[in-house]
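Supplementary Data S3. Sequence and structure tokens for construct A.
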Amino acid sequence: MSDLVTFGETMLRLSPPDSRRLETASEFEVCAGGAESNVAIAANKLGIPSTWLSKVPETPLGRRVVGELRQHGIETDVVWSHRGRQGTYYMERAGKPRGATVIYDRDDTAISTAKAREFDIDRVQNATVFFTTGITPALSSTLRDTTASMLKAARSGGTTTAFDFNYRRKLWAPDEAEQTLTKLFPGIDVLIIAARDARTVLGFEGDPRQLAHKLGSQYDFQTVVVTRGSEGAVGWHDSVVHEQDAYETDTVSKIGTGDAFTGAFIARRLHGDDVPTALEYATATAALKRTIPGDVALVSQEEVEEVVSSGGSELSR
């Protein structure tokens, strides 16, 4: 059985090469990407056997997603569906002032109908950590109930529950997200949240240290990690706040950076590291991910350890 089990949707990402516009593109680069599978892959790269649960259409596109994830070494346990679509998203990459543009095409997807009873709950209850994100309940009312049921099942089996708040404004409004996600908080042990989301969605005020302490105290989490973008992250545990600066990096792609961070943080905690050490490895993994195109952190444990030991200077050749 896997130490880490994740649950959520993985999409196919289609991107025009270079900085071309979607409306004139004649070819696309294709890869699979989803927060929960990205986390599973990052943790697996750092030595934690991981499984991704989902509901996937029995179509060539659905098989394409599952096949790619398996190539990255994680175990997939999916419910194959003859109804619903495979979610996709399109990303147009560009520098300033245009920036990146993301267009979702994920209505009526197979996973939007997923119910907890369709999955092998023993996998969840036998794992050490169960992980999902705030993206999943944003996709349908059915998934709101399913996410709550999965978290409850994990807790009842003694599995630690970890949750990335992961607010996406293109999926729902802040007030709807706040009402839905705070109802899940009693079933969550470890919360990862961006400082901007704590302010925008939850209405919390203060610097990241204050946000972490307020969240941990108010909602009785075991651990709270507040990410702060290019400035690193802070972690609250046992009423103590720990800070970790980001490592300098030359950014090729920001997509999946947060997932790489989360996967590495969970992995190092599962390896027995304390929160400060786990934050150190998580920020190193996130820095490496920013040098890699695509959604997935294709890193090795040796690379991450070298970034940590060198303080973020260029890896030796």
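Construct B, processed identically:
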Amino acid sequence: MDWTEERIAELKRLWSEGFSASQIAERLGGITRNAVIGKAHRLHLPSRPSPIQRQMGERRQRSRPAARPVAAAAMRVAPVETVRAAPPPPPTVVAKAPVPPPPKAFRSGPIDYSSALTLSDRHCHWPIGHPNEPGFHFCGAAASPGRPYCTAHCQLAYRKTDDAAA
């Protein structure tokens, strides 16, 4: 679909008369609502408030009752005692589970635990130290069944779901 000078002039006329983009697309034929909006934007046609917001404003105006004259006697209001709201209760403090003690120094056996290649699935793979520093090694203790770490390091590595939610 090409925008000819006649179609652009018709778009400008319909836009200025307040037709919606859908109505303009219908009248021009062979064009979508979004194409009308895009062309209007590129032509720098003045934007209009959203019809949704317009309807909401109309509803608010219609729903307000008309002001009625009120007698002076009816305007006198008895004094109202102010009631102070109770302060909100202090937040509930949930005690966290105690932190497990750090793992004890494990045995140093005849196996060299400095490489992950020397460990089997039965050994703890917890790294001790920094890999780029001398003395780096893995724990090497007996691993918990189905886990890569011993019981003490499992306590450090994994959290219970209750602890995670806190």
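Residues 5-61 form one domain. Strands lie at 127-128, 137-138.
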